[in-house]
Amino acid sequence: MAAAKSLKLTRLTLTDFRNYAGLRLETDKSLIALSGPNGAGKTNLLEAISLLSPGRGLRGAGFDELARLGGHGTWAISAELDAADGPVSLGTGWSGQGEGGDGGGQSRLVLIDGHVERSSGALGQHMRMLWLTPAMDRLFAGPASDRRRFLDRLVQAFDPEHGSRVLVFEKVMRERNLLLEDPRADQAWISSLEAHMGEAGVAIAAARLTGIDALQKHIGRVRTGSRFPWGIVAVDGEVEALVSAMPAVRAEDEYRKILADSRGLDRAAGRTLKGPHRSDFSVIHGPKGMPAGQCSTGEQKALLIGLILAQASAVKTETGVAPLLLLDEVAAHLDRTRRGGLFESLEALGSQAWMTGTDAELFDGLGKTSAVLHVEAGTVSDMRKTR
Ligand SMILES: Nc1ncnc2c1ncn2[C@@H]1O[C@H](COP(=O)(O)OP(=O)(O)OP(=O)(O)O)[C@@H](O)[C@H]1O
Ligand SMILES: [Mg+2]
């Protein structure tokens, strides 16, 4: 077979990260199962890997929370990635500076092949990643903001620039919100921020529509072969509706007008009421024809796994590189047949997949390309040296 382009971490080093004082892990495997008792550090390990992609990682935690209690108040992650165009070393860390909590003031250091990058967005040029966590079990029934973040991560796997676009939009929007509160603010400045929001907002909406469309087409192609239910996906939002209805430049003008007209309402609300930061991601369980939020817990979980797998293979088809997958506690909720189906799909994708479960037996069905690692109290050991 032609050299399939895949992503694989071959080395991972953690320093004072969560419950890991120091960890060095080397692997040449594609499927990696982490088993161990509750509180061992399985999810922490996935979280560390997730920070090798843009953003705040799979828990969305503040960087101060990540520093090991009893450590020096700083943390570092470094890794060697076998990427599509050869090996690259990725590093990130936090120096203990910047405010804690969820303010926008925190920033982390990002290094790619030893060069300091301006923002974590640069990681997206090398790393494509998707994840599923137990917290996402309530995705379809929970708040729209969680679904929107999920959607943006799906889109980001197609389009590495997407995450930066969203960050820029949010930054400019915060600036506008502040100016609206100031009675002496320069109106021309507000207009220029709105022009910027128009441009970024339309780019975000367009990328979402393109991403959703590619995913839906791919679902149509693969749905009969999948052991997981297929979904009908859509994005609902004001700016997305504009982008669907008219050329991008006109949509920018329209959205800018909407912003200018709603200054009074936005000022009263203390936030921007309309825009791509309010859109929702809607999913219908295809075989049942039912909105995902009304399906059973197990059905929702299976649908979500099906979506992630379809997205991973859509990204592979579109870009030639399958994303790396982090699947926290996925196997435990599946019956044996579905679990086998999951392992098969992951093997077919080719990129690395990291899975967790409290019970090593969950991973008995894994083949030669896998490793089962035991995690306990912030240390990791290999359960079976050869397989
Ligand atoms: N900053 C920190 N410093 C030290 N320990 C931490 C820090 N943050 C979290 N922990 C601890 O790390 C431990 C491991 O957490 P983690 O979520 O990785 O467990 P897990 O192996 O996924 O367990 P479960 O099976 O219950 O999901 C927990 O006991 C948690 O309290
Ligand atoms: Mg866990």
Q: What would your notes on this structure say?
A:
By secondary structure, this protein is α/β, with parallel strands linked by helices. The chain folds into 2 domains: 1-128 and 321-387, Rossmann fold; 138-319, Glutathione S-transferase Yfyf (Class Pi), Chain A, domain 2 (Up-down Bundle), CATH 1.20.1050. It has 9 helices and 15 strands. The protein has helices at 42-50, 144-158, 162-181, 187-222, 238-245, 248-261, 263-269, 297-319, 336-349, and strands spanning 8-17, 20-26, 31-35, 75-83, 86-94, 109-112, 115-116, 129-132, 231-236, 280-285, 290-291, 324-327, 353-357, 370-376, 379-382. The strands form 3 sheets. A 6-stranded antiparallel beta sheet has the order 2-1-4-5-6-7. A hairpin with a 2-residue loop joins strand 14 and strand 15 (379-382). Helix 4 packs across helix 8 (297-319). The protein is globular, with a radius of gyration of 22 Å. The protein starts with 7 loop residues before the first strand and ends in a 5-residue tail after the last strand. The structure holds adenosine-5'-triphosphate and magnesium ion. Magnesium ion binds at residues 42-43, 328.
